Amino acid sequence: xxxILISCTVHKGSTYSIxxxxxxxxxxPENISEVFLPRDFDEFCCGCTSCxxxxxxxxxxxxxxxxxxELIDAADVIILAxxxxxxxxxxxxxxxxxxxxxxxxxxxxxxxxxxKQAVVVTTAAGAGVKSxxxxxxxxxxxxGIPQTYRLGRAVAATDWQSVKPKVKDSIGSKADSIAKKIxxxxxxVPVPLKTRAFFKIMSLMQRNGWNEADKKYxxxxxxxxxxxxxx
Length: 231
Ligand SMILES: Cc1cc2nc3c(=O)[nH]c(=O)nc-3n(C[C@H](O)[C@H](O)[C@H](O)COP(=O)(O)O)c2cc1C
Prior knowledge:
By secondary structure, this protein is of the alpha/beta class. It contains 8 helices and 5 strands; from the N terminus they run βαβααβαβαβααα. It has helices spanning about 15-25, 50-55, 60-75, 90-100, 130-145, 165-185, 195-205, 210-220, and strands at about 5, 30-35, 75-80, 115-125, 145-155. The chain is globular, with a radius of gyration of 18 Å. The protein starts with a strand and ends in a 10-residue tail after the last helix. The model has no long low-confidence stretch (mean pLDDT about 95). The structure holds flavin mononucleotide. Flavin mononucleotide (FMN) binds near residues 84, 87 and 126.
């Protein structure tokens, strides 16, 4: 199983440590790729909307982003890890996710996404876990990933060494239970009703889509008819 771990800080704090524990419960170290932001990608979306209208290859950061895109596409499991910064993901995580807006189901989702699983990971000192996990889980859902698991904790600490053993144990148990589900579902990831229903609505909308690039994409894939990316 191939795993990509995208860590949205460059330091290896509590969030990275938990994400790495999660990754190692799924696969061997040689199958884990790690990306650190902003070290590996440090651009902000400039709002030109070229990705939506002309195609993603027209994004001024397309080539710079390509190595990360290729790792995402090759992975079976995507782990997105960001600490809580003022109740949400870090700016660098948001900047990365903005660059994949064109891949949302409302535009041009990549069909490989519908066979992947994701884990979103966060830690807070105290509050903001739920909203931060949602920031990342929203992109996973709208990219088309059928199963996204949430691993977040208020750790009452600003570094991993200071996190109490009891809290670490409880995080480990939660990671174990997520790993069991992911391994069981690998290769036959169930596509939930919510994804199927949203895809259907998009499919109807794309028949008369206002954006030619999106409309052509959906039509060429046969998705405006009865074909589905998970079949
Ligand atoms: C800029 C900044 C904003 C933060 N905002 C919050 C917050 O809104 N809520 C909270 O409980 N902790 C907040 N924290 C604390 C971190 O989320 C917390 O210490 C986290 O476990 C750090 O993860 P890390 O060790 O992976 O860096 C903030 C920390 C920083 C640096």
